[in-house]
Write a structure and sequence with these properties.
The protein is α+β, with helices and mostly antiparallel strands and about 750 residues long. About 35% of the residues lie in helices and about 20% in strands. The strands form five sheets. Strands 1-2-6-7-8-9-11-10 form an eight-stranded mixed β-sheet. It is elongated and about 100 Å long. Keywords: Membrane, Signal, Transmembrane, Transmembrane helix.
Length: about 750
C-alpha cells in the first residue's frame, strides 16, 4: 500500500510538472505576441522591438487552385521560413485566397478542395513561422466570394476555413493596434466584397455599404480621444479604390481615409501583370469632373510651389498613399512594411526570381517617389518635427547569417550616378528580441541639413550588407528628399488604365455615350429624309465632296434598308430595357436569374421577397465590351458594305456605258480609278467579309465564355447571341446583289 501511495504521489507530481510546463509554454507564446484587449474592447499588441519601430508583412492574391498545386506548395515552403526570419508584428493576406476557377478559367465558383488546402497550408505556415495564429489577418477577395449567395451559406467556405473565420472575426471591419513606448499603430482591415457574391466575371468591384463606411469611420477614430501618444493609421483591403464602387449615399472609402488622414491603404486585386508602379497618392483636391474624381493622370497630382501655412494649428490638405502589391499567384510576391517613428516605408520581395538570403529595408530617409507626403514637407518647412527622427539614416536588415558590416552610401545625381558624396558604416542597435529572429536595426548619424535641395531626386541612397559568409547584398537605389519634396513618376498606359480611372463612376457615362452615338447614327439621317426632305446620294457626294456629305450619303443608304434600320433600332432598345440573358450566378445550381445593364436581378431572402439589382457596375465587363467591340464595329462594317455596293454599282454603270453622259471625261477618269478597287474581284468587299469573320469569331468567343460562366445555351440569350450576327449576315447577302 505504501509503495502504491508513493507511486500515486510521484504520478501526480509528474502530472503537475507537465501542466506547469504547458502553462509556462503557453505564457511564453502569448508573451511573444503580448496581445491584450483594453477596457474599450480594442485589441492591442505590445511591440517586441524595444524601439519606436514595428514592421508587418503583406501577402495578396494567393489563388490556391486544384489545377495549379505549385502555388500552395511554394507558399508552404517559402512563406513559413520567411516569416520566421522576418518575425513581423502582424501578417495581412489581402484577399483572393483561393482561385475558384475551372481549368479553362471560364467557370468561376467555390471549390471546397481549394479551401481545405488553404486551411492546411496556413496551419503549416503558422507552425513553421513560430508566430501566433492570432496575428494573421486574412481578408475575402472577389474570388473568395464567387457564387456565395450569403455569408454563412453552405458554400461560404471563407467563414469556415479562413483564419479570420476560425478566430471569430465575423465583421467586415476588424482593427488591431500595435503599441510601442512612443506611438500607437492602428491597422484596420476592411472587407468590401459583394454582400451577395456573384460568379465571375461580373464580380470584379468592391462594394462598400454605408454601414461598412460608418463602422470603418468608428474604428479609425477609436484612439482619437483616448491616446496621449501619436497614432499612425494604416488600412488594408483587397480592392484598389479605382475598382471600388460608391455606397448608396455616394460615399467611398476615399472619403473616410482622407477624413482620418491614414498614412496608407494596402491592397491587392490587380496583380503585377499591369505594371510595378500600381501606386497612387490621394489628396483632398485635384482633377474632378463631379463630386467624385473620374480620373487622375499621374501617380500623384503635380503640386504648386510651396505655400505652406505655418501658423499655429494649420495643417496641409488631407492625403494618403494607396499601395497595391504584386500577387503570389504568378510572381511569388511578399511585402514588408515598416513604421519607424511615424515614417512609413516598405519593400516588395520577389521570391520567384531569387531566394532572399538577406533583406534590406531602409526606413529613413523615405523614397521620394512612392512614400513622401505633403505632411512631411509641412513638418520640415514649418519645423514641426521631432529632430531625432531626421538625425540618422536607418535600416532594418533581415538575415539568417551573422552580419559583419552595413555601409550606407549617398550619391549626388546632378553630375551623374558615379558621384559618391557620403559613405560610412552603420551602427547596430542592441541585442533586442528581434535580433534573435534575424532582424537587426542599423543607423548612421548624419547632418541631414547638408542634403536639403529643391530637387526631390538629386540624392540617392543605397545600403550594402556583408554577412559572415562574405556575401554582399545591395539595396535598391532610391531617391530621397529631406525637405519632403516628391519625385514625379508617370504611369505606363497599363498602369494608368487600372489605377487612374474611377471605373465605377465611368460605367454609365461610357455606356450612355456609346448608346447615344448609335441612336444618332440611325436617327439623324432618317430625320433629314423625313423632316427636311433632303436626299444624299453617291452622285451628290461625287459632285460635292466632303466628310459630312460622305457620312450622310452612307447613313441614308443604310436607312433605305428597312430590315437593317428597324433591326438595329429594336436591338438597341432591347439592350436598354430588356434582360440580356439568364444564367446561374451562384455556386449551387438551380437558381437561374437574368442580367440587365443595371445588374443581375435577384430575389431577396426576406419575407417581402423583393427584386433587387446587384453587380452594378460589375456587369460593365460584359456590357461595355459588347457595345463597344461588337455592336459599334458591326454598324461600321454594315455601313462599309452598303457604301461598297453603291460604289460597285456606279463602277458597273460606268464601264457598261449606261450613263447618259457617255462621253464625259470625268466618267472615264473615275472608271479608271475605280477599276483598281471595284473590278469583278471586289477586293474591298472581300476585306470587309474578312472583318465580318473576325467580328463573328470575337462574338462567338464572348458567347462561349458566357455559356461556360453561367451555364447557358442559346435559349438563355437569343437576343445577345443572334441579333448582331443575323443582321450582319443579312447585309452581306443584301449587298451581294447589285441590280
Amino acid at each position: 500500500m505504501e509503495s502504491m501511495r508513493m507511486k500515486t504521489v510521484s504520478h501526480r507530481r509528474r502530472i503537475s510538472f507537465t501542466a506547469l510546463l504547458l502553462l509556462v509554454l503557453a505564457i511564453s507564446l502569448s508573451t511573444r505576441v503580448s496581445g491584450s484587449i483594453d477596457e474599450s474592447g480594442n485589441r492591442v499588441i505590445e511591440a517586441r522591438t524595444g524601439q519606436d519601430l514595428i514592421w508587418v508583412v503583406q501577402l495578396s492574391d494567393l489563388h490556391f487552385s486544384v489545377h495549379h498545386p505549385e502555388r500552395a506548395i511554394d507558399f508552404k515552403n517559402i512563406v513559413g521560413p520567411a516569416l520566421s526570419l522576418i518575425n513581423p508584428s502582424l501578417v495581412f493576406i489581402t484577399g483572393d485566397l483561393t482561385d475558384g476557377k475551372s481549368k479553362d478559367m471560364l467557370t468561376m465558383k467555390q471549390n471546397e478542395d481549394e479551401w481545405l488546402e488553404y486551411e492546411s497550408v496556413m496551419q503549416d505556415v503558422v507552425k513553421r513561422s513560430g508566430l501566433n495564429k492570432t496575428i494573421f489577418y486574412d481578408l475575402r477577395g472577389n474570388h473568395d466570394s464567387f457564387g456565395v449567395p450569403a455569408v454563412g451559406s453552405s458554400v461560404d467556405f471563407f467563414s469556415k476555413y479562413s483564419i479570420n473565420g476560425q478566430m471569430g472575426r465575423k465583421e467586415n471591419v476588424n482593427a488591431v493596434t500595435v503599441e510601442t513606448s512612443e506611438r500607437k499603430h492602428l491597422f484596420v482591415g476592411v472587407d468590401t466584397t459583394m454582400r451577395i457574391g456573384l460568379r465571375g466575371p461580373t464580380n470584379l468591384f468592391g462594394h462598400p455599404t454605408d454601414e461598412l463606411l460608418s463602422s470603418l469611420d468608428s474604428h479609425l477614430s477609436q484612439w482619437d480621444n483616448q491616446s496621449t501618444k501619436p497614432v499612425t493609421k494604416i488600412s488594408f483591403g483587397h480592392f484598389p479604390l479605382s475598382f471600388s464602387a460608391l455606397s448608396h449615399s455616394q460615399k467611398s472609402l476615399k472619403h473616410v481615409f482622407l477624413k482620418h488622414s491614414v498614412s496608407a491603404y494596402l491592397c491587392g486585386h490587380l496583380h503585377s501583370k499591369f505594371g510595378k508602379n500600381l501606386k497612387r497618392h490621394h489628396h483632398s483636391g485635384g482633377i474632378s469632373l463631379s463630386d467624385n474624381d473620374l480620373f487622375q493622370l499621374n501617380m500623384r497630382q503635380s503640386s504648386a510651389e510651396s505655400t505652406e501655412n505655418c501658423s499655429f494649428g494649420a495643417l496641409p490638405a488631407a492625403e494618403f498613399w494607396e499601395w497595391e502589391m504584386g500577387d503570389w499567384r504568378k510572381n511569388r510576391a511578399m511585402r514588408i512594411m515598416a513604421i519607424d517613428r511615424g515614417h512609413v516605408s516598405y519593400i516588395d520581395l520577389d521570391f520567384k526570381s531569387k531566394s532572399q538570403k538577406t533583406i534590406i529595408l531602409p526606413t529613413f530617409p523615405l523614397d521620394s517617389r512612392f512614400m513622401s507626403t505633403s505632411f512631411a514637407r509641412h513638418k520640415y518647412e514649418c519645423q514641426h518635427m521631432i529632430s531625432s527622427s531626421y538625425d540618422a539614416i536607418r535600416s532594418i536588415v533581415f538575415s539568417h547569417s551573422l552580419i559583419l558590416e552595413v555601409v550606407a552610401r549617398v550619391y549626388d545625381s546632378s553630375p551623374g550616378f558615379d558621384n559618391l558624396v557620403m559613405e560610412a558604416p552603420m551602427r547596430k542597435h542592441g541585442d533586442d528580441s528581434s535580433s534573435s529572429s534575424g532582424a537587426t536595426f542599423f543607423s548612421l548619424p548624419w547632418n541631414y541639413r547638408a542634403f536639403e535641395d529643391p530637387l526631390p531626386d538629386r540624392y540617392w541612397l543605397q545600403i550594402e550588407v556583408t554577412d559572415i559568409k562574405g556575401r554582399s547584398t545591395l539595396s535598391e537605389m532610391r531617391p530621397f528628399s529631406i525637405n519632403g519634396l516628391s519625385s514625379k513618376v508617370s504611369w505606363t498606359w497599363n498602369e494608368f488604365r487600372v489605377m487612374g480611372f474611377q471605373w465605377a463612376a465611368l460605367y454609365y457615362p461610357v455606356l450612355w455615350s456609346a448608346l447615344c452615338c448609335l441612336f444618332l447614327v440611325f436617327l439623324i439621317p432618317k430625320c433629314i429624309i423625313i423632316v427636311f426632305k433632303k436626299q444624299y446620294t453617291l452622285k451628290k457626294f461625287i459632285a460635292k465632296k466632303g466628310p459630312i456629305t460622305l457620312v450622310l450619303w452612307i447613313l441614308q443608304d443604310l436607312c433605305r434598308i428597312p430590315v437593317v434600320w428597324f433591326g438595329y433600332m429594336a436591338y438597341l432598345l432591347y439592350l436598354i430595357f430588356f434582360p440580356w440573358f439568364s444564367g446561374e450566378v451562384f455556386t449551387e445550381s438551380g437558381n437561374r436569374t437574368y442580367m440587365t445593364i443595371m445588374g443581375w436581378v435577384v430575389t431577396s431572402s426576406g419575407t417581402d421577397r423583393k427584386h433587387e439589382y446587384i453587380g452594378q457596375p460589375d456587369v460593365m465587363v460584359l456590357v461595355i465590351p459588347h457595345v463597344v467591340f461588337v455592336v459599334i464595329p458591326s454598324v461600321l462594317v454594315v455601313c462599309c458594305l452598303v457604301a461598297e455596293r453603291e460604289m460597285y454599282k456606279d463602277y458597273i454603270r460606268t464601264v457598261s456605258g449606261k450613263k447618259e453622259d457617255d462621253h464625259d471625261w470625268g466618267r472615264k477618269k473615275r472608271s479608271q480609278s475605280h477599276s483598281l478597287l471595284f473590278s469583278n474581284k471586289r477586293l474591298i468587299r472581300k476585306s470587309l467579309l474578312m472583318a465580318s469573320l473576325a467580328l463573328y469569331w470575337k462574338h462567338f468567343k464572348n458567347c462561349w465564355a458566357l455559356a461556360r460562366a453561367y451555364e447557358m445555351n442559346v435559349v438563355h440569350f437569343p437576343g445577345y447571341s443572334l441579333v448582331v450576327p443575323l443582321l450582319l449576315l443579312y447585309v452581306i447577302w443584301k449587298t451581294q446583289k447589285v441590280a
